[in-house]
């Protein structure tokens, strides 16, 4: 065992170098922003657009597909490289279309290695249909099923039925869903995905002019000022592809050409140096808020650039939407909808920055008001608006609780905090962990819940003890923690190790588990102070996850700093 003084010196050195590296990721305008990793569905989607226009993807794009093929011939959804049938079938479709125009031997070799998988996912069948390889009429369920879908919606409001009533993956909903209240109740990302899908299906089946006009009008109304839809690659790619097909079918107007060109330009900006495409342009609000929170937790002696926090906090203030919340990506025009996680973390970061000005104070007050207004009836916070196709999220609820705790004056936020804590305690799994929606997965959910329980002063409750026990039992032999996006144990990652240690330290755990985790973080740090980022960020199950170098800096900083606080 390393002596405490020697370990303290190692941790102090690692923390200082980690902070110095994090500061190099701050940009001139004050924001922190890490480049997200590329993934398969967005990379296929952009190639799909090129092929639809008679273009051949670049050699860099083709090389990306060849280089990311796994040994067994399949592709993963993301950089974690866990083979996935849908990612494999999408990549196969794109490479087969490219090979028809180009007889490159490398493409033929790549295709020859691909294992067989049955075509099952409806969104993937859509891509095959556009290339004449699936029947358009078999994509959707009948509109006669709409009354049944309404009954299912009612049943899903009952918690016991919710896990049993998932929408079918092999069929898409009928186009006529668009004109029903059911569509308005869908999760916002589902709406943005389904409208272009509905247009493509309608163009190639019934071709009803009134329906098409309504769908196209909706799609045009949702384009953002930067030319994207929802600032998400796959949604933007589907929208652009749809408008290309609308134009081909003679339903075009003068604005559609500009929308196509602007969308394609935006999509090009999501290409990474490795030739692949990432799902989002950036997550700079989250990156900046997390960075400020980490930097404000450490002792001032570690931060040589004293204006870093002030500039980052001011950038966050400038990105606030008109409704008082924050979106995941700063646009300064309120075009992207506010979400609870970015609002909670941005508000918390500005509070923690201790910047005193009328504009800053107003931003905090509006952020808190947004969180209180969007508090779910069950006590949780969801990603966007509770009850509209959205569900409570463990980490978001934990972040909202912490923001309210930090701002609370005269007990005015006590009811919301108490309700949030009650929801968290009830959300624990029977095995002692919490599942999260957005980051991987059980480690992040459990760590976030423990942080909220500790900081809210809930005491030594059963759920807290069970969460600590689950984290301790989930540690890998190398001292780290790791799991994939579905919660399956895997190799250790820096991010999951760091947030697990931080939660255990906050919970008061004192045992070899923490020491082994700290040792792992120190061993894995690079000379320049950085750590290797891993695929721990999750979008949704057909996209997979992403890695972000910001995460691999802020979470170790929090863990190392907390260790020093509790051992010195």
Q: How would you portray this structure in words?
A:
The chain starts with a helix and ends with a helix. Strands 1-2 form a two-stranded antiparallel sheet. It has a two-stranded antiparallel ribbon with strand order 3-4. α13 runs antiparallel to α14 (307-318). With 568 residues, the protein is mainly α. The chain has 23 helices and four strands. It has helices at residues 4-24, 40-52, 59-67, 85-101, 105-112, 122-130, 146-156, 181-184, 188-203, 209-221, 233-248, 254-268, 284-297, 307-318, 340-353, 358-373, 394-407, 414-426, 442-455, 462-473, 494-506, 512-524, 551-567; strands at 481-483, 489-493, 537-538, 545-546. It is globular and about 70 Å long.
Describe the structure in brief.
With 568 residues, the protein is mainly α. It has helices spanning 4-24, 40-52, 59-67, 85-101, 105-112, 122-130, 146-156, 181-184, 188-203, 209-221, 233-248, 254-268, 284-297, 307-318, 340-353, 358-373, 394-407, 414-426, 442-455, 462-473, 494-506, 512-524, 551-567; strands at residues 481-483, 489-493, 537-538, 545-546. It contains 23 helices and four strands.
Strand content: under 5%
Mean pLDDT score = 92
* String of helices and strands: HHHHHHHHHHHHHHHHHHHHEEHHEEH
End-to-end Cα distance, whole Å, is 17 Å
Globular, elongated, flat, extended or rod-shaped: what is the shape?
globular
Question: Strand count, sense and closure of the main sheet?
Answer: 2 strands, antiparallel
Please give the radius of gyration in angstroms. Answer: 24 Å
**SS-derived structural category:** mainly alpha
Number of helices, counting only DSSP H or I runs of 4 residues or more: 23
Unreliable residue stretches:
none
Instruction: Kindly state the number of beta strands.
Output: 4
Helix content: 40-55%
Order of strands, widest sheet: 1-2
């Amino acid at each position: 065992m390393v002596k405490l003084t020697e370990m303290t010196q190692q941790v102090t050195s690692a923390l200082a170098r980690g902070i110095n590296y994090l500061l190099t990721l701050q940009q001139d305008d004050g924001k922190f922003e890490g480049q997200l990793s590329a993934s398969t569905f967005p990379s296929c989607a952009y190639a799909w657009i090129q092929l639809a226009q008679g273009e051949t993807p670049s050699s860099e794009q083709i090389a990306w597909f060849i280089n990311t093929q796994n040994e067994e011939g399949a592709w993963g959804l993301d950089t974690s490289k866990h083979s996935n049938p849908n990612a494999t079938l999408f990549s196969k479709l794109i490479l087969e279309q490219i090979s028809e125009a180009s007889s490159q031997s490398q493409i033929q070799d790549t295709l020859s290695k691909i294992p067989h998988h049955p075509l099952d996912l409806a969104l993937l069948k859509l891509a095959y249909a556009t290339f004449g390889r699936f029947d358009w009429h078999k994509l959707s369920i009948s509109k006669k099923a709409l009354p049944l879908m309404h009954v299912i919606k009612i049943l899903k409001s009952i918690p016991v039925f919710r896990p049993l009533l998932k929408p079918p993956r092999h069929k898409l909903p009928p186009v006529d869903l668009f004109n029903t209240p059911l569509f308005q109740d869908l999760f916002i990302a589902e709406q943005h995905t389904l409208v272009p899908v509905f247009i493509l299906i309608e163009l190639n089946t019934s071709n009803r002019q009134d329906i098409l006009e309504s769908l196209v009008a909706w799609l045009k109304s949702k384009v953002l000022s930067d030319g994207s839809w929802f600032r998400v690659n796959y949604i933007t790619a589907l929208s652009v592809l749809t408008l290309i097909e609308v134009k081909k079918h003679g339903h075009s107007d003068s604005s559609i050409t500009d929308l196509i060109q602007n969308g394609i330009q935006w999509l090009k900006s999501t290409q990474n140096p490795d030739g692949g495409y990432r799902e989002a342009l950036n997550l700079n609000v989250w990156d900046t808020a997390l960075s400020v929170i980490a930097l404000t937790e450490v002792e001032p002696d570690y931060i040589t650039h004293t204006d870093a926090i002030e500039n980052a906090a001011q950038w966050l203030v400038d990105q606030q939407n008109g409704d008082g919340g924050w979106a995941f990506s700063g646009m300064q025009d309120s075009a992207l909808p506010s979400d609870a996680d970015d609002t909670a973390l941005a508000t918390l970061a500005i509070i923690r920055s201790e910047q005193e000005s009328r504009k800053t104070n107003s931003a905090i007050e509006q952020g808190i008001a947004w969180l209180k207004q969007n508090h779910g009836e069950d006590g949780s916070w969801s990603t966007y608006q509770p009850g509209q196709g959205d569900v409570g999220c463990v980490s978001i609820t934990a972040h909202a609780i912490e923001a309210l705790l930090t701002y609370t004056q005269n007990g005015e936020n006590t009811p919301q905090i108490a309700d949030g804590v009650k929801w968290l305690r009830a959300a624990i799994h029977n095995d002692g962990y919490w599942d999260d929606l957005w980051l991987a997965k059980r480690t992040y959910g459990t760590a976030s819940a423990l942080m909220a329980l500790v900081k809210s002063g809930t005491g030594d409750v059963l759920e807290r003890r069970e969460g600590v026990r689950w984290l301790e039992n989930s540690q890998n032999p190398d001292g780290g923690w790791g799991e994939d996006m579905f919660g399956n144990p895997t190799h250790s990652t820096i991010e999951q190790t760091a947030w697990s240690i931080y939660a255990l330290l906050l919970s008061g755990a004192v045992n070899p588990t923490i020491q082994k985790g700290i040792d792992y973080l120190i061993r894995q740090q690079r000379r320049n102070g950085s750590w290797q980022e891993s695929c721990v960020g999750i979008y949704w199950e057909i996209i997979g996850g992403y890695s972000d170098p910001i995460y691999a800096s802020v979470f170790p900083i929090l863990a190392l700093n907390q260790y020093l606080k509790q051992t010195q």
